[in-house]
Amino acid sequence: MEKAKIKIIRTSQFVNSGRNAEIHIDDNLKTKISDGAEKTIEVSPGKHTVLAKIDWCKSQKMTLNLEPGEKKKLVCGSKLVGWKKWLTLFYLFSKNQFIFLEPYSKEQTIEYQENSWHSLKEKGMLHYIFNQGVLGWGVPVGIIFFIFKTVFNYSQISFPDILISAMITIGVFSAGGVILGLIMWFFSNHITS
To answer: CB of 46 within 8 A of CB of 25?
Structure first.
């Protein structure tokens, strides 16, 4: 009997570009797919479940009912593009939101106008840590934390206290961004090497 084929197309984008996505069929790991790559998996005709996974983040499970010789195209990636990258922390802990797997259509964007892991790596570790860790995470999260802290304690603090608190909060989160950027650099290097 002729096999059926499932073609997985992964979007090319900054989020997770240094990490492989795992493709599970019928709850078994079948292949890993890198940023912007395509893989074709042969399966027996019939009903199959397909799932994409990066670390603990999973896509929705798709059920496919394939005929002999049928070819089905699916696309996987992250919905965190553009301004949504700022919501990474929220998406990481929301079930089935960080990574998607859905039927492919010609209208979908596969190539995003973002830097890939390889282009970021060429600029060096310090550039990466500053841009991704400090500016991409530390400063924005520090500002959000400071705003919430100030709103809830506004009646109890003076203007000089607000300025000092802003500098300390953003400084602490920026230092945390350096640590996070360093961890992300080594983790991404390890995955891609």
So the answer is: no
